[in-house]
Amino acid sequence: MPRFRYQALTNTGSTVSNVEDANSKAELVSSLKTRGYWPTDIIEDIEKDNKESKFQFSIRRRINPKDVEFFTYQMGTLINSHIPLARALDITLEQITNIKLRQVINQVKYDVEHGSTFANALGEHPKVFSDLYINMVKAGETGGVLGVVLARLAEFAEGQRNLKNEVVSALFYPAVLFALSGLAIAVLMVAVVPKFTVMFEDMGTELPPLTKGLIGFANFCSNFWWIILVTIIVLSIAFSQFIQRENGKFIFDKIKIRLPLIGQVFNSFAIIRFTQTMATLMENGVTLLPALRVVKDTIGNKVYSNAVSNAEQEIERGSTLARELERNKVFPPVVMHMISVGEESGSPQQMLSKLSEYYDLETKKNLERLTSLVGPLVILFMGVIIGLIAFAIIDPILKMSASIG
Fold this sequence. Notes:
Blueprint: E1 3-9, E2 15-21, H1 25-34, E3 38-44, H2 46-54, H3 65-80, H4 85-93, H5 99-113, H6 118-123, H7 131-143, H8 146-203, H9 209-223, H10 225-244, H11 246-258, H12 262-283, H13 288-295, H14 302-315, H15 321-328, H16 333-345, H17 348-404
């Protein structure tokens, strides 16, 4: 589709300029007039159109959370600088490189210019902007602090991204070690052990049970590797389907938080998301029940989400958050006690914010412990397995040498 650069006058007499896609100049003129713009100059952007067609595969098509984060940061800065919303969207559009996000923001800008609120315009794109995002923007518009809310949203998104990156980085080293261990064992089974099998058959002596078991397993891997591969693929698909179901996801999340070593990290991560999101929402004017409705879908763990959902139903009947979280027996006692103190003092958001900071530090400590323990454990596991394989191969050779001697 051709792209055009245009300049136009608005109903207030101000001048706007932008770049838009349209099938023709006539279509663009008609589109601009429906928005209250009167074009004074339209030029087809041939150079940019060629450049985009040349590099169309290098431009990201999927909307990355970092793109939304950068958009939010820019909007917060512009709104806090007292630039009108429509003009801020216009300026931000020029900085967006992601084509899909540019199309979304262009539609948001169009809706805002035609009487929609910013929150409602964003709500038309739920795959791009979460319930948390839309609710906070709505609270910011209602309270007249939209710029502040957008700046906090950008900080919140950055904090969540950094936390996720820390978890991934901490688990990356053990995962690589485990993968290398599996590869080394597979090479031994498929390439090394069969060569010794031929030699043992020529010897014609009775082999130890461990050697027999190793040879049988190696022969199975060599001859029926496709069965192993198909089994892995089938189990992976079945597991993927299982965790997409409500009960399956609940069971899987329950197992995750009870795992040794890594379970504590999953627990802390869920609590951080709960406390940080609740604090951010309530500090920006969202009341308790709407905040709980939003936060239960952002925790990322079905066990904690169900606990929050159950608490929400009871709070509607007059109960308190601390009492209901204690009744569900999912959150640690320190969370309930601090929330209870916050409810008694009338400022639960402050306690939630402090809890978020505490568990953020706790998560970092747990990640350090995890990386310091899991690495040596994987190496030990690899050493034991390879040692057993080596012993199973060497033991019959030594016995044969001893009998010959």
